[in-house]
Design brief:
Distance between the termini: 26 Å
Number of helices: 4
Strand order of the largest sheet: 1-2-3-4
Strand content: 15-25%
Structural class: alpha+beta
Shape: globular
């Protein structure tokens, strides 16, 4: 991808995918209802996470938790966005892909935190009766971005050793 406008359009599309998925779940799936999507692996389960990953900090009072988490998210999004805009021409493909995935995911969860005070999650991953986690499209984007970054780092180190 060469064009800045194409990159921004991709990020906006990923953000829209996340927000539309969450909107549909909030409107159409009752809270805590579970519907198997892939039996024994993925269920559609509407939950609300007031904290961060694995519900960390969920116990804080909303008056403290919401501004704290939204503020941290806003600073992180601004810092990553600034870094990407400033350094994108020098970035390797995997590093840029990582930010193109992480930024819309982080913005999607920031919107939920700031607007609703909780993040809407709905993809419940499990192995038979063992629950692993419940997340959303933004979380998948962020996770895929981290994997892309780590993979790029490993491949770059390998190329330097071989080159």
């Amino acid at each position: 991808m060469k064009s800045l406008s194409v990159r921004i359009a991709l990020m906006l599309a990923l953000l829209a995918l996340d927000q539309l998925g969450k909107l549909w779940v909030r409107l159409e799936v009752p809270l805590h209802r579970t519907t198997p999507l892939i039996p024994n692996f993925i269920d559609l389960t509407h939950t609300e996470n007031p904290g961060v990953s694995f519900s960390l900090l969920a116990g804080l009072a909303a008056g403290v938790r919401v501004p704290l988490l939204a503020g941290i998210s806003l600073v992180a999004v601004a810092a990553l966005g600034w870094y990407w805009l400033r350094h994108r021409k020098q970035m390797g493909a995997f590093a840029e892909l990582a930010l193109l995935l992480i930024l819309p995911g982080a913005v999607g969860n920031l919107i939920d935190r700031a607007w609703f005070g909780v993040v809407t999650d709905f993809l419940h991953f499990r192995i038979y009766s063992t629950s692993l986690f419940v997340n959303n499209i933004a979380d998948i984007e962020i996770s895929a971005g981290v994997v892309a970054y780590l993979l790029g780092t490993v491949l770059e180190k390998k190329a330097r050793r071989e080159g």
